[in-house]
Every structure is written in C-alpha cells, then in structure tokens.
Design brief:
- The structure is a homodimer.
- With about 230 residues, chain A is an alpha/beta fold.
- Chain A folds into 2 domains: about 80 residues, Arc Repressor Mutant, subunit A (Orthogonal Bundle); about 110 residues, Rossmann fold (3-Layer(aba) Sandwich), CATH 3.40.50.720.
- The first copy, chain A, has 8 helices and 9 strands.
- In chain A, the strands form 2 sheets. In chain A, strands 5-6-4-3-7-8-9 form a 7-stranded mixed β-sheet. A two-stranded antiparallel sheet of chain A has the order 1-2.
- In chain A, strand 7, helix 7 and strand 8 form a beta-alpha-beta unit.
- In chain A, about 40% of the residues are buried.
- The N terminus of chain A is likely disordered.
C-alpha cells in the first residue's frame, strides 16, 4: 500500500471530509459484492458527484488509482479509514439521555464509523439508573473518574443549550479531547480540544434554499409576478 | 434595500449555505442588543472564520457592506432570510416518531429557521393516537390527503433505513417537494423533488480526522514511533 506522508497533504476541506463517509459506505457495499476495483466515474455516478471531484477527494488519502483499472476497493477502504482515524475504534461517553441522546444510543451503526459509545450519563436523578437499550444511565458525577480510568477521548453532548457549556467543561477537565456537540450553542474549549457542532440548521439551509429557488423559478415560468425580484 | 437579482448569483457552495444560519444566529443576537451595523471582521472573530470568507459568504445575499461602517444588521438579517426562503415559514410533515422523531418534534427553535412541523405520522398502531409534545401522532395513511389539502411542501423522514424509501415515495406522490432525510440511506426521488440527507457521519468524519491528526502529531512530538508513517 502506498500512502503519502500526511504532512504532505496540505489542508483538506470540510466538504471533502464530509464526503469521505459516503465513499466508505459505497466501497464497503461493493467489497461485500466481491468487487475488487472501482473507478471514480463509477463512484461519481452512484453518488451523483462529478468524477473529478471524487478523484480529488480520494487523493487526500494518498491512494492513487491506476489508469483503466481504477482504485483497489480494499485499499481505498483501508486508506479512508486510516485517514479518518476509523481504523481504531474511538470510545465515547454521551451526556444527556433525552430523546436525542436515546436516539444516538440506539444507532447501532456508529461502530462502522470508528465510534463506540461506551457509557451514558445524565444529571437528572429521575433518569439515572434507568436502562436505555444496552446502557445503564450513570450519574454525571461519575464521568471524570471513569473517563480517566478508561482513557476516554471523545464526548457527545445531547443536553439542553443552557447546560451544554458546563458539561463541556467537565469533559475537558476529565481529559476528553474531542466533543461532538448537539446542543444549539457555540461551546468554548481550550486547545487542543476540538469541538464539532452538529448543525441541523446547516442542512436545513441547503434544503430551504433549493426549495425556495425551485418554487421561484416555477412561478417565473408560470408568469406570476414574484415579490422582490424587480424591487 | 439592494438585492442583486438572484439569477446573477452563479452557484453558491454548500459550505457557504451551511454557514449562513450561523451568521443569522449571531446577527439576531446583535440586533436584540441594539447593534445597528456590523463588520465582517467582527463576525469573523466571533465565529472563528476568516473575514474575507465572511465577506464572500454574505455577498451571495446581494447585500453590500459600506466601508468603515460594515453591514446594516437588520438589512443583513432580512437578506439572509430571503435568500434561504426563511422569510416565509415552510410547513412540514414528519414521519416516524421514534426517539429521533420525538427529539425533532421537541425542537422549539425550528420556527426561527423558517420551518414549522405541523403534523407527525407513524405507521405503528401502537404509536398512532399518542401525544408527543404538542403533536397527536396520526396514521401514515392520512398523510396524502392532509398534505394535499394543507399544501405541504416539506417532509421530514425519521423512520428506520428499510422503511425510508417507501415513505419518501408516499411523500412525493402527495405533492411534497423537499425531503429532509435522517434515515441512513440514499433516497431516490424524481425531479424536481429535492432530498437532503442529514449526515451525522459527515460531522463525525471531521471530528475524527482532527482528533486522529492531533493525537498523531503529539505522538510524533513525544518521539514515539507511529505506525504507517514510514511504511
């Protein structure tokens, strides 16, 4: 296998990073069906992406396709997994077992994406001690000690906005290095801790914009006067 | 107010679209605190973004800032809302009231982002008739008739992967034009219907990559041999 030294890879755009799991998902399906090699055109067609974009994205992993043959399926899977750090499973703690927390605990596919939620916490005494799927809900006070003993590096926050910063602070002081934040608030954390917000509104923005554009062009086609275009 | 005719705006990147809700959120907070104008540097500083990036992003809405003064806060809010179609609230139906569906029904902030979930459906007789927050869960069979009568344009899918396509088909045949899909599957829908997947794994990929990079560079600093770098 040939991997480019990662220090040579300059900056990888978030858009590329966001697409890598899609490629991984498709490649794993292809591998299961016994396909050894795959071209960027094939991937592009299946995921409605420009093949040139696909080629550029895959290049960040350091694997280079062969002309006429394409990329080796297994090689590409390994390279993406290694690039994302998904070749080793990261164990995570989740805090906040409301509806959203329970939904994430029930997602049985995270382990295909390098993540294993190993414990769930809440500060509500009414929730502590209950069982959600495979998880016994633990009291939040137990997080620091357990995180250190288990060397937990990732935390998932699914508490209400007003509680999120204090949970993040607790995670940071317990040695957690990466936070996946589902609370609708911008969290502060000191270097080198990474916070990634799950931004539902970002997806909604893409959808809304396309819908608004479609509806507007249809109205224009039908010759109905549209507000704001001629102002 | 000066808006550029939208047909002049070429293609807007998804990255820009994803950032617009962040700007909107900040601008609304500033407006509440009585701030009339804001500069791109100020916005950039607050959101940890490059001011040039902010300027480029905001330009897609057609509002142009004044030198030394910056952008008018209210003007910018209006422009972003109009650009995203959030000046009019879009009514949506949600199908699938498991944990994730219930979590979305409980999100009371969607209305600030142009979205109002007006009804929730499930095909499980055990769930139909129950109340979740403000919603009575309706049987899925009622969706087509209600969607047409209420002229619903947006559907939210929070059912398991194996049921998602049939729900999408039902939505499309009921006149729904935009689908926000939370099921971990690629859905097919005919033009001009838009499907936007909520890709949790995409966010996870960004987080995992940064964590893997940080850990690797720390190991390198500590002089520990790292697998794969010298192979």
């Amino acid at each position: 296998m040939t991997y480019v030294d990662e220090s040579e890879v300059k900056s990888v755009s978030q858009a590329t990073l966001r697409r890598l799991p899609k490629y991984l998902h498709l490649l794993r399906n292809l591998k299961r069906r016994g396909r050894d090699a795959v071209s960027c055109s094939f991937i592009g067609e299946h995921l409605s992406l420009d093949p040139t974009q696909v080629r550029k994205d895959l290049a960040v992993t350091g694997v280079i396709g062969k002309p006429k043959v394409g990329h080796g399926t297994s090689e590409l899977i390994d390279a993406i997994e290694q690039f994302l750090g998904w070749n080793n499973v990261t164990e995570a703690f989740l805090v906040g077992v409301g509806n959203l927390g329970a939904a994430l605990l029930g997602y049985d596919r995270f382990n295909h994406y390098g993540l294993k939620i190993v414990a769930a916490f809440d500060k509500d005494p009414a929730k502590v001690g209950k069982t959600i799927g495979d998880y016994d809900v633990l009291p939040l006070e137990k997080l620091p000690d357990l995180a250190r003993r288990m060397n937990i590096l990732m935390g998932i926050i699914t508490v209400p906005a007003e509680a999120a910063q204090s949970v993040a602070d607790l995670m940071v002081s317990s040695g957690i290095r990466a936070i996946w934040n589902f609370a609708p608030v911008n969290l502060q954390a000191p270097e080198p801790v990474i916070v990634q917000d799950e931004e539902l509104y970002a997806t909604l923005a893409i959808l809304s914009r396309h819908l608004a554009k479609n509806l507007k062009s249809e109205k224009l086609e039908r010759g109905i006067e549209v507000n704001g275009l001629d102002s």
